[in-house]
Design goal:
Keywords: Mitochondrion, Repeat, Transit peptide. It comes from Acer negundo (Box elder). The chain is built from 31 helices and 3 strands. The protein is mostly helical and about 625 residues long.
């Protein structure tokens, strides 16, 4: 077992040599000893076919960070591992990694009638992207729907299920069969895909259960994997693992375990994700780029040092990186405000023959904006526009908020003019967001009203665009009126709306009211609130040094299933620091949750250590 090695830069440029490494180390201020051949730390690159990724690693041993088994090529977190201080919420997730869907929703009675389940549109893998990458879709119809998004159609079976929201799905299906209607795989696959896209996972699971129990469909590995994925989303990882035992051995292959791995990552369950990955290696399953990307997503969130080890393993196993792999690396560099490193990733990606798509360009532009690099951001936005914005119209939804970030109202108007004659839902929402960023609430409201008059049915997701504007501008009265309007229109009020209401009151300084709203919501509904709904309240209590209420919110998060997150403990420690009180047993509590402090939290823990020794305390003793 070797100690897990750390990378200061995960990419190797073509023609890499030890001399190059020494030079780079000198430039980065790293000792060249860490790349000596004789230490066995620097390994010669193995080129991936078709100009794949060349990995550059400058390693030094971490202190008990974890173990990396060279023989098994596996991962195992150990005591003492440092978690990254930059933890993204699952609900907010890796928004920069999503591929924008250019689809225009079918205009009519069904307008993305999604279920609010606490997952925003910014999960690290969106519903249909998860289906795409897991290869859970099972018909040519689904593929054609994805290739021709502007001609999205809904299957009759899907319409029957969503038009009877108060009936169990099995009742809808029994009636369907009784009426003599057919249940082809194409019809089933189309219905399942549309349910997933709207995050109606409970209904999709009921459909899958009925199909398996009634033997109406001969299940293959993808069907079992789809069922596994839905169980994990609706009932949790433990139930999903139990279901695996019921899957016939002949279908218990790589697709099943990569599906479980993806859900472990979504739950930020590091230990379980590593166990599943190692099991896949032990059973000699071919490990795909998707599985490696899942590990990259996980470590991007909890322990960035391990990213280099995943890349090394990909190189060793000759697994070619995908566009999504590069997006993860770009996001990692961007989050650390390492713009130079981010540009190097892009350069390496292009050298591998992969050109940035428009969503990757949007990611880059966003980090340039955040980094204050206005000229680079503007250049990237022009690149997104292409030669003719009308012909490249689907870029508008990304351009609108990005130009607003730059404070360029004239550019927002110019881009909106391209869409103005017949805006799509996504463009309406992007424009509302843009004007909100520019503090032009009236313009945002005008566009919202036009959206309401254009579309027959809107969901809470669409209302949330304006509600977010009100929250950011501390307009409580207008926010409340909008929520009442949502309810009157028949919108389901769920976790996304709760989260914005909580933020609305927190921004206005009404923390206790925000907590009351969240508590009432959880009592009235079985839906799970978003992580951010809890943490934004807890942060306010922590700033006050209110240990009692901070601990209360910490406990409620655990009750909701949010366990083992660094940010929870960071917030809790802050409460004790501001209260100038010792936090008895805090390290033991963290260890029990398999959470290990980064440098920042470790420094803060010293201040709340009940048994801390100082020069003064020694004198007094």
């Amino acid at each position: 077992m070797w100690a897990l090695r750390r990378a200061s830069d995960p990419l190797r440029s073509p023609g890499f040599s030890l001399g190059t490494a020494r030079a780079c180390c000198a430039k980065l201020g790293i000792s060249s000893k860490c790349v000596e051949d004789k230490a066995g730390i620097l390994q010669s690159p193995q080129l991936i076919p078709d100009r794949g990724l060349h990995l550059l690693r400058f390693y030094h041993r971490t202190h008990d960070s974890s173990d990396f088994s060279a023989g098994r090529c596996g991962f195992a977190s150990q005591a003492g591992a440092e978690s990254s201080g930059e933890e993204d919420d699952l609900e907010d997730g890796f928004s920069e990694l999503e591929i924008p869907d250019s689809a225009e929703a079918a205009k009519g009675n069904i307008a993305e009638d999604e279920k609010e389940d606490g997952s925003s549109s910014e999960d690290d893998l969106s519903g249909d992207e998860m289906v795409d990458q897991l290869e859970l879709s099972g018909s040519d119809t689904e593929a054609s729907q994805k290739r021709s998004p502007t001609k999205r159609k809904f299957s009759d079976l899907f319409k029957a299920i969503v038009s009877s929201p108060h009936l169990p799905v099995h009742s809808v299906l029994d009636k369907w069969v009784k009426e003599g209607k057919g249940l082809s795989r194409e019809e089933i696959s189309s219905a399942m895909l549309n349910l997933r896209k709207r995050r109606m996972y409970g209904r999709a699971l009921q459909l899958s259960e009925w199909l398996e129990n009634s033997k109406r469909l001969d299940f293959d590995e993808r069907d079992y994997a789809s069922r596994l994925d839905l169980i994990s989303k609706v009932r949790g990882l433990q139930k999903a693992e139990q279901y695996i035992q019921n899957i016939p051995k002949s279908f218990k292959g790589e697709v099943i375990y990569r599906t479980l791995l993806a859900n472990c990552v979504m739950a930020v369950n590091v230990k379980k994700a590593e166990e599943v990955f190692n099991k896949m290696k032990d059973q000699k399953f071919p490990i795909t780029t998707f599985a490696y990307n899942q590990l990259l997503l996980l470590y991007k969130r909890v322990d960035k040092k391990k990213i280099a080890d995943v890349l090394e393993l990909m190189e060793k196993e000759n697994v070619k990186p995908s566009l999504f792999t590069y997006k993860i690396l770009i996001g990692t560099k961007g989050q650390s405000n390492d713009i130079t490193g981010m540009d190097e990733v892009v350069k390496e990606m292009k050298a591998a023959g992969i050109e940035p798509d428009i969503s990757t360009q949007a990611i880059l532009a966003r980090y340039y904006v955040n980094g204050g690099l206005k000229e680079k951001a503007e250049a990237m936005l022009k690149e997104m526009e292409g030669g003719n914005l009308k012909e490249n119209r689907w870029a508008c939804r990304g351009l609108l908020p990005l130009y607003a970030e730059l404070g360029q109202a004239d550019e927002v108007r110019r881009v909106w003019k391209v869409c103005e004659s017949s805006p799509r839902l996504e463009e309406f929402m992007a424009a509302i967001e843009a004007w909100g960023k520019l503090k032009d609430v009236e313009e945002a409201e005008a566009i919202f009203e036009r959206m309401c008059s254009t579309w027959k049915k809107l969901t809470s997701k669409h209302y949330s665009a304006l509600l977010r504007v009100y929250a950011n501008n501390k307009m409580i009265a207008k926010g409340k009126d909008l929520v009442k309007r949502m309810a009157d229109s028949g919108c389901r009020i769920g976790p996304l709306t709760w989260d914005l209401l909580v933020r609305l009151h927190v921004e206005a300084g009404e923390v206790e009211k925000a907590e009351s709203i969240l508590q009432k919501a959880t009592q009235q509904s079985q839906l799970k609130p978003m992580f951010t709904s809890y943490i934004v309240i807890m942060e306010q209590y922590a700033k006050r040094g209110d240990i009692h209420n901070s601990e209360k919110m910490f406990h409620r998060m655990r009750q909701a299933g949010y366990v083992g997150r660094l940010r929870q403990f960071q917030c809790l420690v802050q409460a004790y620091i501001h209260a100038k009180a010792p936090a008895y047993g805090i390290r033991e509590r963290m260890k029990a949750d398999n959470i290990f402090p980064n440098k920042g939290l470790a420094a803060q823990l010293v201040h709340v250590d009940a048994f801390r020794k100082t020069a003064v305390s020694d004198l007094l003793d």
